[in-house]
Amino acid sequence: MSSLLAADPLLNGDIDFEVVLIVILKTVVTLALLLVLVMFYIWFMRKVIADMQNRIGPAKAGPWGILQTLADGIKLFFKEQTIPDSADRRIFKIAPYLSVLPAFLAFSIIPIGGEVSIFGHKTYLQLADPPIGVLFLLMMSGIGLYGVMLAGWSSGSKYPLLGSVRASAQLLSYEAAFGLSIVAVLLHAGTLSTRGIADAQAWTSWHSLLTDWYWSVAIVSFVIFVIAAVAETNHPPFDLVEAEQELVGGFHTEYSGIRFAIFFLAEFMNVITMSAIAVTLFLGGPSGPALGFLPAHGVVNVWIMPIFWFFSKLLVLLFGTVWLRASLPRLRYDQLMDLGWKWLIELSFLAVMVTGVVIVARDQGWNRWVAVPAAFAGAIVVLGVLRLCMPRRAESISEVV
């Protein structure tokens, strides 16, 4: 039964007390790692934006202000926590945790390194590797909506309810494109396991950057995935869910103290988790060149180098999210919906179509110089027909008037 639930070699065979302790240790380390990453990301975001705006940024709490996030969290722990008289108290208290828990569970299936030995037991540097890892990821990305929706509903106030409804519409608008963008990777890898997808992009030479990693063979899906992931995490420029000047404070208007902080903890957790998933699906995960002058099975090449490459790629993507936050203005709501429904979903379908043609051409031995351009040409024609079928903005306005 254990082999059906997870492909980790630690869980193959008999499960004794020592194995249980290792699983508990991996769980605690994974949670601690994600919390530390959130602290680092918030400090990193403040410092980078401060540099872009010619400011100093956090500088007082800890060296270079690195403990500022911890200080903010401690402060929020001791702030008063209020609950409106009209609120559903039980749901009001549970909602923040329904937002943060899916982010951690989604991060638990991310392979950070390869196969290592812990206390004499072979295991992956990954909390869990279910055979349906990608489906589990999609499930967690959808469940996170419930925390936001229930928070707005249970507050017993109109403005939080409006914010939660808008959050639901935004997530559903980009969930389809988010899922379809992953299909191209699944077609190439032939597995739903995140470990299997990372292993399929194993480093062989510097040509792996262009031939083995899926960002190159599924570049359109990679771009769509990044855009949809940013929108699903309510990250600027898609932060309409918490547009203060429009909805007072969004779905969390009635929250204060640590419950208020948990929602932002969940948001930053989701940003880090989605970036880590992008690294796993499109950028080879922990794969990268080893240090050839050191033993291949030594501690450095087995433990340190995979972790180094994973977090280096993750840092690049996180810097990109900070750059977006500092550079782009917030979209209008109609622009957000148009991008999701009129562009990303159609482009995702067409990307899957082209990927399917490329894979069939490769397996059947067709001439790629004919099949691939023909697939792209067909996709462009289909996209053009779809765009022509959509009503123009002036026509939509005239119908409303």
- Secondary structure: number of strands: 2
Strand order of the largest sheet: 1-2
| Helix-strand string | HHHHEEHHHHHHHHHHHH
Mean pLDDT: 86
Query: Percent of residues in helical segments?
Result: 55-70%
The largest sheet, given as strand count, sense and whether it forms a barrel, is:
2 strands, antiparallel
Q: Give the oligomer, counting copies of the same chain as homo and different chains as hetero.
A: single chain
Please report the distance between the alpha carbons of the first and last residues. 62 Å
Number of separate helices: 16
Any low-confidence stretches, pLDDT <50, length ≥5?
A: 1-6
The secondary-structure class comes to mainly alpha
Relative strand content: under 5%
CA-based shape: globular
What does this structure look like?
This protein is an all-alpha fold. Helix content is 68%, strand content 2%. The chain has 16 helices and 2 strands. A two-stranded antiparallel sheet has the order 1-2. A hairpin with a 2-residue loop joins strand 1 and strand 2.
Walk me through the topology.
Elements: H1 2-5, H2 17-52, H3 68-77, H4 89-107, E1 115-118, E2 121-124, H5 133-154, H6 158-189, H7 194-200, H8 208-211, H9 214-217, H10 219-232, H11 244-247, H12 257-282, H13 299-327, H14 333-364, H15 368-389, H16 393-400
Q: Which key terms come to mind for this protein?
A:
two-stranded antiparallel sheet; globular; 401 residues; mainly alpha
Question: What's the short version?
Answer:
With 401 residues, this protein is mainly alpha-helical.
